[in-house]
Every structure is written in structure tokens, then in C-alpha cells.
Amino acid sequence: MQFAQNRTVEIDIANSALDRPSSSSSSSSSSGTLPGISKTYASPSKGGANGGRGGAGTGSPLTGTDEPTAALTLTSSFVGSTYVNCGTSVASPLAASAGAGSPPAHLKLFSGEEKKDDECADLNHHNEQHNGQEAAADAGKCSHASSPDHAYADEHNQDAASAASSSSDDSMDGFLPLRKYDSLDTVMMGQGIPSPIVSAPPGTAAGSYHSGAQPVVKSVGGPGTDGREQAPHPALLGSLTPPNPGVRVNFSPGPTGLPKVVMEQVAQSLVSSVTGEGGDGMLSAMFLSHRSPEFTDPNTGILAQAVTSLRTVMSIPDGDGDRGYEILFLHGGGHGQFASVPLNLCASRDDKGTYLVSGTWSARAIGEAAKYCTPDVLSSITDDGRYLTFPEVDFNDPTQVDPNSKFVYMCTNETVNGVEVFNLPTGEARSPVPLVLDASSDFTTKPIEWTDANVGILFACASKNIGHPGLTAVVIRRDLLDPDQYPSNPTCPGVFHYATQAKAGNLWNTTATFNVQVVGMMMDWILANGGVDEMERLSKAKAALIYDLVDASDGFYEVPPVDAQCRSRMNVPFAVRGNGGGHDEDVTERFLIEAWEEGIVGLRTITPFGVGDYLRASLYHGVSWEDTVRLVDFMDNFMKINGRRRL
Questions:
Q1: 178: which strand partners?
Q2: Which residues are catalytic?
Q3: CA distance 11 to 331
Q4: How far apart are CA 527 and CA 644, in angstroms?
Q5: With the C-alpha atoms ordered 244, 248, 254, 255, is the resulting torsion angle positive or negative?
Q6: How far apart are CA 363 and CA 338, in angstroms?
Q7: For all residues of the chain together, what is the average pLDDT?
Q8: pTM for this model (two decimals)
Q9: What is the chain's Cα-based Rg?
Q10: Which of 300, 375, 380, 587 could anchor a disulfide with 391, C-beta 3.0 to 4.6 Å?
């Protein structure tokens, strides 16, 4: 594959924005200015036949405005017409998927049809028609609303390195501006708040509006004696406790629910630990010592069972050297691994690691990596700050991937941006440098070509598809544990040191015993329900239901213009556009409130920085086929009541 011409600029990262937030969250440059660094660069052009989703493009991929200094190398490539490792398109199952239960096995699943060029042109036309606040929201740029009730935070219109700022003030970077609520402290979510949907005559209730059916009151309670405003509706603040929790379906991006049968098994283990009834009499691992035989027995212990079943589910090789892998259960989450990878594979900051940036999480990883190695960054960021595909890269081209790099880092599914990689390069396209995969949100939903793709490390936080938050599974090739081949940074803490943990058999420190037990339960559930191949088939089917409805909605709903072959199966971002073609907050809020009333929760995540324009339906293992059908039915009915179809 021919790679577009590129230029690089080396940026001094010492004491830069990679380690602190921008000095002013109210400013941003559409050309990609790194706060704290006197450097600007141009993002790749979006021209070409694909209508803004990645044509050949013209213009400079990267230009500097002053003399470069050493440390972090940023390489921005054009987004070409051929996309590496994203997957292939197959037919849509929408017409045959209306029934309940598992989708028919014969179906070709996951629609991958691209939007037509005129649809993309229509989207661009809408973006051009909006001005001020709405235009900024559509384009993913920072803006400031005139109303004091809404504050916008710049999330994703900067370069990957800038977006990866590592600080407590850093937002969950995305392709969206954020809308901040001022009264988060006034809400008591999940404490018996009665249903706030009222059948009031149009125009008679303050804070209500009429967008298709009954007026909806967007706040609860009355003004207090202290004059404080009413609290916003729980649904608008991300409440996961609807009026009838018994019918709840949780589409949260994580942490989230597990399959019902697994949750019941977890609950029973806790109850039997207290009552001694309804189980095998063994204490739940929540109460077990990590040194007890119930946990450590090499044949029957909880730890061995979790390792063995995970190895079986994902066909993880168990050979020696570069033909086998260790499975570790560590603390620290994904952010811990952002640091652990370079600490283990790089002896000093002089060692290089290549980072392929396709969205929020791969961008954030750079902030930690830059403390312990020298990142080379290839990014697919567009000139308006969005990620719509995976970077085009030839792993065997030394001008793109330095042969001296210790690893090539990539995130296989970007939960915020809706960009997923389905096929790792093998054969002649195989990376000669070991791959490091952040598979936190898609692990166990598709097979992995371990040795054929030269996977060196895969890590996955448990709180999406394999268990509860508080545990991270790390699968590492055994030759990478050899200090002669891969000397680690001498400052690497023991709790993050892969070789130390492997030699101690996952017991160097107190492991998350309960979380390990739940991973084992999840692996047993996957095996009992068809294994990873069936999990992949279901993931394709669930995602196709939503994408097909959105694509057929005539603009009432909209997904970001992600390349069709890279559309995430795990996280489907979608906006409720109504009939105007732009952001419609009233209709969006009505959608969230009515969904909450029906038990459909988790579609909008509230952070300290507010909310984005797009909602997200996360389709992890805990969301069944029937759950997805229920969401799509709700979306379809909501559109029929609140929208009008253009002829």
C-alpha cells in the first residue's frame, strides 16, 4: 500500500500540555495548536470522492511554524481511499431481524454500506448553514454559548498529543463539544424520584416543551425556600435508576452490566457465602484470601480456572518464547497500562514506541507514554478534530514505522469515536514490530490472530465485556518478559512489572480476587453460548440493527461519518437530529427522558465536563439481542411520533 507523503515535526514535550491541561479551556485552534507549545500544524485534508470521510486530500499533512525541538514526533497522514485492518462489508439483516431471540444463524450480519456522496454533501451543507454555537457543535470545535447554563469544553479538535493531556482536569476527549450542567450537586439520582413525565397542557408548565406527544417537564421538585432552581430531570443527568428498574436495559459505555445469568450467579455466590445455602458452600472470592487453596489450587482454584477458561475462549497459545503467552490480572485499569507498556518494553525515554492514533483512547495513551519513551505518532485526525477511520499505514515501510521501535500501539475499538479495527495484518502485511493492543472494549467479541499478527501485548479492562471494574487482563508474549531482549525501565514499580507478576503467578501482591472469579464466570458463559465466534456474530447483528435504522431515518437520527468499514460494533454514537438537520437539544432531551421512563438507560454519559452532542449505545455482552431490538423499536416509534419523513 502506498502511503501518502508526510512531514514530521518534533515537539518538546517536557513540561508541555501532555502533562497538564490547557491554560485556558475556553480557547482552541481549528488548525491544531498544542496548548503550552508554540507549534501549530495542519491536519490532513478531507477532500476527494468520499465526501469528507477521507479522500486523497490535498494540502500539507503537517507543517511547523517555528524551529522544531526534540522529543515527541507527530506524523499525520492523509486518510486514503483504502483503509487498513478495518474489516469488510456484508449484507444487512434489518429486514429479517424483527423477531425476538437470537438472530437467525444463516444471516450475513453487519451492514457496511457507505453513505452516498450526496448524503455526505448534505451533511456538509448543514454544517455550513449553522453558525455560532450550533456550527461549532456540528464541526466538533470549541464554542461558547451565550447562556450561562451551558459551558463548552474543547474535547477533540486538537492533535492526538494535545488531546492526550494527562491530568485530573482532562476531559474524556471526543469528537464532540461538551454541554455542562451547573446543578449536578442538586440531583439525588435513584432515590425514589417519582416519574416526572406529566400530561400537562402545552405551554402551561414551566420548563416543559412540546415536540410531538405529551409535554415533558425537564426538572423535578419545586423551588426551595433558599431560591435554588429545580433539579434537572434524572435522565438528563445520566441516572441509571428508572421508575421500574426491573425492566432496565443498561447501554452504558462502561462500567456496565453483565449477562443476566452471570449477574445471578454472582449474586448467588454472595448470598450463599452469608447463608450457607444455595451453593457449593464455598465462600465467594470477595471474602477469600488470595493465598487460600480455594483461590490458588493449580487444578481447581478460582485463579487457575479463570486463566484456563480465558485461554480457551480466546485460543491464547501456551507455548514457549514467542509462541506462547502469559495471562496476568493486574490493577490500574487502562490508564495504568498506558504507563506499564513503555515502562516494561523501554529501558529509557530514548527508546521509541510507534502509536497509531484513531481516537480518544489511543490519543490519551500518549500522555503517559511520553514520560517513559519517545512516541512516534501516526494519526487519522481530520482537520476539524474528528477521528473517522483508522490511520493508513504500511507496517513494513521504515519511513512510517521505525524498525527500532520497541512496539506499535493501537486501540482496537475507540469507544467515544465509534472506530473499530476488525482484522489485524498478517502474512506479508504483518508488522515486524510487536503490536500492543488496547482491547478494553472489544476483547472476547472477535478472534485474535495472536502469533500470525505478531501480537506482543493485549490488555483489556474488565468493566466492558469480561467482568467488573478493578481488574485489567494483560496477555503478554513470553519472549517480551526476557530482560536480555526487552530490558524494562529500572523505575518500573513491581505492581506493574510484567515479569515480576508472571514469576509470582499473579500473586506478587493481593490480586482482585472477586474480580478474577467474575472473569471466570464470564468465560464460562461465553463458552456455554457458542464461544467467541458466536459472540462476534451477535455483535455484528446488534450493531447492524441500530446502524440500519439510523441510515434509513432520513436524517432524523445521525451517526458520525465514520468510514463504513470501521464502524464500531461495540459503541454506536448517534445524534437525534429531529427535522432541522442540526443538533436539536429539545428533541434529544425528550428522547432521553422517554427512554428512561421505559427503562432504557446509559445512552448519555455525564462527566464533570458536561455532555456531548452524540448519544452512545454500547453493545457489550451484557446487552442481549432482545435488548437491542427493544432499543431499536423505541427509536423507531419515537421517530414516528416526533418526526416527519421527507418525501
A1: 612
A2: 361, 438, 464
A3: 32
A4: 45
A5: positive
A6: 10
A7: 73
A8: 0.70
A9: 25
A10: 380
The predicted-structure confidence for 382-407, as pLDDT tens digits, reads as follows 999 999 999 999 999 999 999 999 99
Report d(CA 638, CA 646) in Å as an integer.
16
* Residue-wise pLDDT tens digits, 599-612: 999 999 876 656 77
Output b/e per residue, 393-427; b: 16+ Cβ within 10 A. Answer: bbbbeeebbbeebbbbbbbbbbbbbbbbbbbbbee
Give me the amino acid identity at 554. D
SS (H, E, C) 620-644: CCCCCHHHHHHHHHHHHHHHHHHCC
30 pLDDT higher than 50: no
541-607-28 Cα angle (round to 5): 100
Between the alpha carbon of residue 170 and those of residues 20, 22, 167, 194, 420, the distances in Å are 8, 9, 5, 35, 24
Nearest to 160 by CA among 17, 359, 404: 359
Q: Three cell numbers at 572? A: 454506536
Whether the upstream peptide bond of residue 398 has omega within 30° of 0, thus cis, is no
Looking at the predicted structure, is the pLDDT value of residue 11 above 70? no
Closest alpha carbon to 512 in 371, 324, 302, 343: 302
Cβ contacts of 111 within 8 Å, gap of 6 or more: 89, 90, 91, 92, 93, 94, 544, 547, 548, 551
Reported as type and span, the H/E element at residue 311 is helix 302-313
Q: Terminal CA-to-CA distance of the chain, rounded, Å?
A: 43
Nearest CA among 637, 598, 600 for reference residue 615: 600
Residue with cell 428533541: 587
- Minimal CA–CA distance to 169: which of 560, 475, 608? 608
CA atoms within 13 A on the CB side of 43: 26
